[in-house]
Amino acid sequence: MKRARVVYWVVAVPFIALMLFAAYNYVFKHELIVDVFHRLGYPTYIIYPLALAKVLGLLAIVSDGSKALKEWAYAGFFFNFVLALSAHINAGDGQFAPALVCLVLLIAMYILDKKTHGEKSHGN
Question: Where are the domains of the chain?
Answer without folding.
Answer: 2-121
